[in-house]
Amino acid sequence: VPMVAPGNVQVHVINSTLAKVHWDPVPVKTVRGHLQGYKVYYWKVQSLSRRSRRHIEKKILTFRGNKTFGMLPGLEPYSSYKLNVRVVNGKGEGPASPDKVFKTPEGVPSSPSFLKITNPTLDSLTLEWGSPTHPNGVLTSYILKFQPINNTHELGPLVEIRIPANESSLILKNLNYSTRYKFYFNAQTSVGSGSQITEEAVTIMDE
Known about the structure:
It is a single chain. The protein is mainly β and 207 residues long. The protein has one helix spanning 28-31, and strands at 7-15, 18-24, 35-47, 59-64, 69-72, 79-89, 100-103, 112-118, 125-132, 141-149, 159-164, 169-172, 180-189, 192-193, 197-202. The chain has one helix and 15 strands. The protein is rod-shaped and about 85 Å long. It comes from Pedionomus torquatus.
């Protein structure tokens, strides 16, 4: 098997899900056989938004021939990763380079995990929601938009409310009685807005 590990391993983080890794080729005589390529082992150490320890799954990408760089796609935003590089010949892999640590920046969050509308009265509705399964960063706020729908399914004026990120419920007041409303709800990080979930609810007709 090869004798030495690739040197001078460098990681360039391109965005929240993609990084580029470079390395120096090993001297030909240390390959001790036919150079087949290089393998990059990489794994997520932890999410920076949640201190959850979980089973660490190592991923391997093989770059054929005498390439000295490769792309690592499909990374998770706002996470800490480690990687190392090994040279491969027909017999197997050489030793691993020292582990290199890199961090991906924040991304936009996934949609809130649920939106529930309860306690309808003549002029109010209660909203409850769950935070996104994948915050992909530090949540800065929630954005709620809503508008009335009339009997011919035309949409009325859209109202937008920004809600602090630590809230999980809201009572909407001063609504019209016996009116159907459509709600659009999403979470935000400093990078931008995540995907929204929609829901409809009706205020009651009379007490």
